[in-house]
Amino acid sequence: MFEINNSIMNLAKRMGFGDVVIISHINERKQVRFANGEITVAKHWSERKTELFVERDKRIASTELSNYESEHIESVLNALYKLTSNLEKREDYYGIAEGPFNYENIEDTYDSRVLDTDPIEHVEAAINATQLDRVAGVLYVDHPQTFLTTSNNIEAKDEGTGIEISIRAFKNDLASGHATQSARTLEKFDPERAGKKAGDIARMVTEPKLGDAGKFDVVFDPLSIGNLLTMVGEFASVMAVESGFSCFVDKIGKKVATEQFTLRDIGNLPNGYGTRKFDDEGVPTKNTAFIESGVFKTYLLNHSYAKKYSMENTGNAGIIMPMPWNLYVEPGTYSQDELFDVKRGIYVTNIWYTRFQNYLTGDFSTIPRDGIFLIENGEITGAIKNIRISDNIQRMLLNISGIGKVPEQIHWWEAEIPVHTPYIRVKDVGITRATK
User: Which pTM value belongs to this model?
Assistant: First the structure.
């Protein structure tokens, strides 16, 4: 792919572009889908695409291509040239990072055994661990390779592996449990654990009753809080802040969460599903605490935005928008029994349809799904149904009352940014009834 990158770069420079970033991706992917406890689809395919960023006289544009015929590449660059001719200058654009850089190998991100393993065996192990007949989900095996070439003396490659499963188990139509497992190496992948958890949650659901509205202490499973924290990570991007799609506008140096809460983006996290050696400008990825002891410390930045705000580059460059790699909640001191030690609360195992009514204030709603349980005097006393969480993400971060000791990696289609988080308890969460 470097040959393709270099041919695109040479043509772009001849046409008069200034800064140029070319990122080519190859991913060999296996997929196994299953339903009703049986495998329904097993396939293997290769994905290949190239992301292209160009700048000319402080006018910037980007696109993707997957057709590598020379005529098509020239046509795409000509279209970008015409586009940049009609754009206004970005006076706050300060260029891309200047290389070269040195990159360290990151542990637990590549394992050749992942590529040779039989995915069907892992699916069968997960299904059997549920101890239920009705089970559905999907398993993926990935072999991603990234090839980066920039006009500022950077040429870098990253190669990894990954294997993950999302599994839902059903005791009946009203009783289900969901769990996931994601890992970069075979040693750290435990599909049986996911299957057992999904089955255990489903079996706990017995004759769910309509939940009450009001304020409750809520214990969030890693699967459910992971979904919400992906939004918190996106809100930390400087572009989200500048465009008004973030509740962290004017929050640097201010308290945004309880003191016991620290949230990091760790681009070089061992076994992190989003881990990569470098960002989209070639800057080595790093460990950035953007919320530290409850205080918002920094936006997630690329080179240009770091210059604009006179801040340290966090190594989060996307081709256009800085984004997190792996979100990591610093573990707390609470055991699981201690987290559930509330007089009257709710245990939420999963959520979906999370929608923000106001990004600037952080008002949102989301629907708990699968197992939802009432907690009374520290004990789960029954299952409930048909409730909605209607609250404010800033208020919830400030109302965190307990963080568990053991983080779990969460990554699936409701949490596209990988999140490593323990169980988290939040006090006085707003609950409404979804239906009567």
Answer: 0.96
